[in-house]
Specification:
The protein is built from eight helices and 25 strands. It has about 525 residues and is mainly β. The strands form four sheets. The protein has a 16-stranded antiparallel sheet that branches. A five-stranded mixed sheet has the order 2-7-8-5-6. It has a two-stranded antiparallel sheet with strand order 3-4.
């Protein structure tokens, strides 16, 4: 595997205007709502540092200072500091990190639950969890990581854990902010925010950012190997002045990406000479995507001891990856790179050293992997605090109805290598893969955190009913599947002293099988 470098910010400039807040500490305070408002909205899954220590499983929260410390746009750099979390990179800029938690497979982050503000954010977490999407980390104010029994509330994937990305809240005071960075390989980042809240409780926030680079790899014959990403988010919020705290918010977002990336690697000898080289055959590699979201959130403090939150969400993700997939008729790319002496002709075609002779054996297969995803649902949760004798209880209950789907169309095209340039053969070759999958899921969870003096025992369970369908459009076949799962867990926490706590927990992990696959879901028993 190649060792990839990243764009390193060489110069950064930020400017913020917060009336009445001349110091950085005051600025931070003026932009931070009360704890009651945060809990009503329920965008956090951990909360503050004190709550993280009392979770029934391991939890860690990366705050804004940590994210901003090195001007992060690469999630791999930010999240790698969390114990038990490991990241395998692909592109060197963190555009598509593969995240694993506690030994769960990192491949496409498919064994963890990804959320944004407490809402499932993966393009199709049930139908196609192995998808190339990750929110832009530079627009986050914190990243929360949950492991063990603490992740039961946030399925469907509880084998490894859950990651929640927390976006900036609508500021209580007027905010105007600009952040600019430049770096090597023509790296740039421009980011701005504008927002505030009126005395009547209506607030708004608009954030926009763009970042990219020309790339650090060298394509034979020249060409762009970099990327550009753009992102805009708008939030509308209403916090009425009523006897009971309540809040209604709407978040709308759009993001796109255009990156010149490829799966094609190098032979061992070529990598030793120049690890940043790219062969001519990879010149058409291009990943393009668009992401749209709409999240509606309402929370109310019904009584002093009862809090209710409801969310509705819609996510849409479209992507096309035009990439070299091999030869129309010939050996696979990995075989050629492993044995370039044995497949000297194919290797020479990849590097552009010779021209194709017109036969399909020397015709390069460039396939456009076109996929579209939707993910939508509604969810509700309640928190009820009460006491029975000397025992204090915090009862959490939740329900979620979720639907997601994916459509795939992988279209093949033939190209001739001619003087180091790929030239289309002009033939319509059709699709090599066309299918669709969809899933409907009902999820329920219930937990009770029981506290007596310095001890807290949390008992919980999650139930999932998952029904899926897979249609192979090319073959004209359809298959269905149904899965039911109960995942219990228990965590025990002892506050030994003011600065020392002891935690133990066990839970049953679950990761559903794909729709219509006929495979068994993945299960585990996790101890800590």
């Amino acid at each position: 595997m190649q060792t990839l470098s990243r764009a390193i910010p060489l110069f950064a400039l930020s400017y913020a205007v917060l009336p009445g807040a001349p110091s950085s500490a005051q600025a931070e305070a003026s932009d931070t709502p009360t704890h009651d408002a945060i809990y009503i909205e329920e965008i956090l899954v951990i909360g503050d540092a004190e709550q993280a220590g009392r979770l029934p499983g391991s939890g860690m929260r990366l705050d804004l200072d940590t994210i901003d410390q090195f001007d992060y746009v690469d999630l791999s750099q930010a999240i790698s500091s969390v114990p038990g979390v490991y990241v395998r990179e692909e592109d060197g800029y963190g555009l598509r990190p593969n995240i694993g938690i506690r030994g769960a497979a990192a491949e496409r982050s498919q064994k963890i639950t990804l959320m944004e503000d407490g809402v499932l954010i993966a393009p199709a977490p049930y139908s196609a969890p192995a998808a190339y999407y990750m929110p832009n980390v530079s627009r986050m104010t914190s990243i929360e990581v949950l492991k063990g029994p603490a992740a039961i509330r946030h399925g469907p994937h509880t084998v490894g854990g859950a990651v929640n990305f927390v976006t900036r809240r609508v500021p209580t005071n007027t905010l105007a902010e600009v952040d600019l960075s430049v770096g090597n390989d023509s790296y740039y980042k421009a980011q701005g925010a504008l927002g505030g809240t009126t005395e009547s409780g209506f607030g708004a926030l608009v954030e926009a950012q763009a970042f990219g680079a020309e790339g650090f790899k060298d394509l034979d014959g020249g060409g762009d190997t970099g990327f550009d990403r753009r992102d805009i988010t708008a939030k509308l919020q209403w916090t009425p002045n009523t006897e009971r705290d309540q809040q209604l918010s709407l978040k709308l977002g759009y993001a796109d990406e255009d990156s010149n990336e490829t799966y094609l690697g190098l032979t061992d000898d070529d990598f030793a000479l120049d690890p940043t080289r790219r062969y001519s055959a990879s010149q058409l590699g291009r990943f393009q995507s668009e992401h749209r979201l709409a999240h509606l959130n309402y929370g109310i403090q019904v009584t002093d001891s009862l809090r209710v939150n409801a969310k509705a969400y819609y996510n849409e993700f479209d992507r096309e990856w035009n990439k070299l997939d091999g030869f129309i008729f010939g050996p696979g790319l990995q075989v050629v790179l492993d044995s370039p002496e044995r497949f000297a002709t194919e290797y020479a075609l990849l590097t552009g050293a010779i021209n194709s002779n017109g036969s399909e054996a020397q015709m390069l297969d460039v396939t456009n992997n076109d996929r579209s995803f939707t993910s939508t649902g509604i969810q509700a949760s309640t928190v009820y605090e009460f006491a029975t004798g000397a025992l204090d209880h915090e009862l959490n209950a939740g329900i979620r109805f979720h639907y997601d789907d994916v459509e795939r169309d992988h279209r093949r095209a033939g190209f001739l290598m001619t003087d180091g340039v790929l030239v289309s053969d002009g033939l319509e070759r059709g699709s090599k893969l066309t299918n669709a999958a969809e899933t409907e899921a009902l999820a329920l969870y219930l937990s009770d955190a029981i506290t007596i003096e310095r001890w807290t025992v949390t008992l919980g369970a999650r139930f999932e009913q998952i029904d899926g369908e897979f249609e192979d459009i090319l073959r004209g076949t359809t298959s269905e599947s149904s899965q039911s799962e109960v995942s219990p867990g228990i965590g025990v926490y002892w506050q030994a002293s003011d600065i020392v706590g002891v935690l133990a927990g066990v839970n049953r992990g679950f990761s559903p099988a794909g729709p219509g696959s006929g495979a068994d879901p993945e299960r585990s028993v996790n101890y800590e």
